């Protein structure tokens, strides 16, 4: 019986999403959006905006609510949400179980990059909170791209900065927009989350093939 090839076979670059993949930040971001939009009486369905940049999520929430807002108001909402989420990250953020152990082991075998829709300050705060500050190279955030996920720009930029062709990269994502971005970039991807793959089993699989 032929065993399925390891997803790590032939890969040189691992690209990690951050929110929902390495850190359990979805409840934090959902809460921050809900608090910021509550005075506008706009309900937040976080599943519809998960994986988007904050600016794109703000626009989607306003559009879904049928509300028009000037650029200054959209910027205010974006900034308020980012400030609130950073405060909650510093107080409450936790890793997705097994994520830190996996990244720590993977660094000895692969180039490890980060591609996140978070802003640079939010990404830095989250990585510091779980002890992964300064681990990833390159780091691509919302400040580096014109189009967020599901556009492949971020993943392609990460591969370009690493000097590794997209086909030799493996992406770890939790959101459909992120998985779609990986596919569009021509990269294999592993979905992380409940009922999907978990870091402990992936660590065992990676080490078995090392």
From TrEMBL:
<dbReference type="InterPro" id="IPR036412">
    <property type="entry name" value="HAD-like_sf"/>
</dbReference>
<dbReference type="InterPro" id="IPR051806">
    <property type="entry name" value="HAD-like_SPP"/>
</dbReference>
<feature type="coiled-coil region">
    <location>
        <begin position="63"/>
        <end position="90"/>
    </location>
</feature>
<dbReference type="InterPro" id="IPR023198">
    <property type="entry name" value="PGP-like_dom2"/>
</dbReference>
<dbReference type="InterPro" id="IPR006439">
    <property type="entry name" value="HAD-SF_hydro_IA"/>
</dbReference>
<protein>
    <submittedName>
        <fullName>Fructose-1-phosphate/6-phosphogluconate phosphatase</fullName>
    </submittedName>
</protein>
<dbReference type="Pfam" id="PF00702">
    <property type="entry name" value="Hydrolase"/>
</dbReference>
<keyword id="KW-0175">Coiled coil</keyword>
<dbReference type="InterPro" id="IPR023214">
    <property type="entry name" value="HAD_sf"/>
</dbReference>
């Amino acid at each position: 019986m032929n065993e399925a090839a390891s997803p790590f076979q032939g890969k040189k670059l691992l690209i990690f999403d951050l929110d929902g993949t390495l850190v359990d930040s979805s409840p934090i971001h959902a809460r921050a959006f809900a608090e910021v939009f509550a005075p506008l009486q706009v309900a937040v369905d976080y599943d519809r905006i998960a994986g988007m940049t904050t600016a794109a999520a703000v626009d989607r929430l306003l559009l879904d609510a049928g509300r028009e807002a000037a650029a200054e108001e959209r910027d205010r909402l974006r900034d308020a949400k980012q400030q609130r989420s950073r405060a909650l990250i510093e107080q409450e953020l936790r890793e997705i179980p097994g994520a830190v152990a996996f990244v720590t082991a993977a660094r000895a075998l692969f180039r490890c990059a980060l591609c996140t829709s978070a802003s640079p300050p939010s990404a830095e705060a989250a990585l510091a909170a779980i002890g992964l500050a300064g681990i990833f190279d390159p780091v691509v955030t919302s400040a580096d791209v014109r189009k967020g996920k599901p556009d492949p720009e971020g993943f392609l930029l990460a591969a370009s900065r690493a000097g590794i062709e997209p086909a030799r990269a493996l992406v770890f994502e939790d959101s459909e927009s992120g998985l779609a971005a990986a596919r569009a970039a021509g990269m294999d991807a592993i979905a992380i989350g409940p009922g999907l793959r978990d870091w402990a089993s992936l660590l065992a699989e990676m080490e078995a093939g090392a």
